[in-house]
UniProtKB/TrEMBL annotation:
Keywords: Coiled coil, Membrane, Transmembrane, Transmembrane helix. Residues 166-193 form a coiled coil. The chain crosses the membrane at residues 7-27. This is DHHW protein. InterPro entries: DHHW. It comes from Eubacterium ruminantium. It comes from the Bacteria.
């Protein structure tokens, strides 16, 4: 009986190996992995030189690792087992309560201090330029009750206090922390992505508009459309699993609003604040202003036609459609990709108002504001 059982195990194992091998050969190779957000290895060059040098076998192993059949399902199964074992942290993310995947936060005062120093130096040089900064805490701070018990996440409150204590006193600070904390039981952060939702962004817009003395457009002035629960964001991609619930992306339109977005870094434009074709791809958050770009220009039929500059990270993408109903000419700069001089752009366009929109993790991750000039 035992011998027959062993033979069955061996035959099953061989059949499994054969299935994997034949399936990987038959199924068409993939060029790109949405989950991993990268180009996959293709079949290597089987030249005599590569075979003799051993490069062919190395490339072939990488190719098989990328193209193995059902790879995404194996990864999900592994992560399912990790979660069922009780592990709550992997690849820089926490598996939180109620289906939330929350990005870790590490406080780096040296990096934050440098970014604040660069901003202050800019203000010192351009005393007559009006600067307002919207500072945004992330889910790791606002949704603390969703985190696993006793998880070692640095306190963003310390970072927010540093900003308030050290930012030039002539720069307005719009801190949306309190508004987000009041709404923490609402859908203000995605469960599978590190960004805030449209509603979270609206709270940020409201806070910023009030600080700037602008008319705050009420939500009743907009038409909203949900794109369905099919968005699995960047945090899900770090540990894909079968437990995750898809997020909902919301697009909206102000009644009577007219808009044009020029993607100046790529030389194209469209008469919409939403690149709706991106609802069909994995990263549906890029429906807002087509994701990351070095420099874009948003024009609208808003009454204030004086140009302004917004220096931002990707949290601003879902907020800017609201701000475009207050300002009719907005230049949007992303310091991660814009390598020209912001001050030269400001002088060329005769801009007297600058708005900084950043989440606190952006400010404490890298010295992006060294590119401010």
């Amino acid at each position: 009986m035992k011998k027959g059982k062993n033979i069955l195990i061996i035959v099953t194992f061989l059949f499994y190996i054969l299935f994997i091998l034949i399936g990987t050969i038959i199924v068409k190779d993939r060029d790109y992995s949405d989950n991993e957000n990268r180009v996959l290895k293709q079949y290597p060059d089987a030249s005599a030189e590569n075979i003799v040098s051993g490069q062919y076998m190395k490339d072939f192993e990488d190719y098989m690792a990328d193209q193995i059949i059902l790879k995404d399902d194996y990864v999900k199964l592994h992560n399912d087992m990790v979660r069922m074992s009780g592990q709550k942290f992997e690849h820089g993310i926490f598996f939180g309560k109620d289906g939330y995947i929350i990005q870790d936060y590490v406080y780096d005062e040296e990096v934050l201090g440098q970014n604040i120093k660069f901003i202050n130096q800019f203000k010192e040089e351009y005393k007559n330029v009006d600067i307002t900064m919207l500072v945004i805490p992330t889910a790791a701070y606002i949704l603390k009750d969703k985190l696993p018990a006793n998880c070692p996440v640095d306190d963003q409150g310390q970072a927010l206090k540093f900003v308030h204590d050290n930012l030039d006193k002539d720069i307005r600070i719009a801190d949306v922390t309190e508004e987000l904390q009041k709404a923490k039981d609402e859908y203000i952060f995605y469960k599978t992505d590190h960004h805030w939702t449209e509603y979270g962004a609206y709270l940020g817009y409201k806070c910023l508009a009030e600080k700037l003395g602008l008319k705050v457009h009420d939500r009743s002035e907009y038409s909203y459309k949900n794109a369905g629960k099919e968005f699995f964001g960047t945090l899900y991609s770090k540990a894909p699993n079968h437990f995750a619930e898809g997020d909902t992306v919301t697009i909206f339109m102000h009644d009577g609003g007219e808009y044009n977005v020029e993607y100046l870094d790529e030389g194209w434009s469209e008469n919409s604040l939403f690149h709706v074709s991106n609802l069909s791809i994995k990263d549906k958050y890029t429906v807002y202003l087509d994701g990351n770009h070095a420099l874009i220009r948003i024009t609208s039929n808003a009454p204030d036609k004086e140009p302004i500059i917004v220096v931002k990270d990707s949290y601003a993408h879902s907020l800017l459609p609201y701000l475009a109903d207050n300002y009719g000419d907005i230049y949007v700069v992303d310091l991660r990709y814009y390598h020209d001089s912001v001050s030269m752009l400001m002088e060329e366009k005769e801009i007297k108002k600058v708005i900084l929109i950043n989440n606190i993790d952006f400010l404490t991750t890298e010295k992006y504001y060294k590119m401010f000039y």
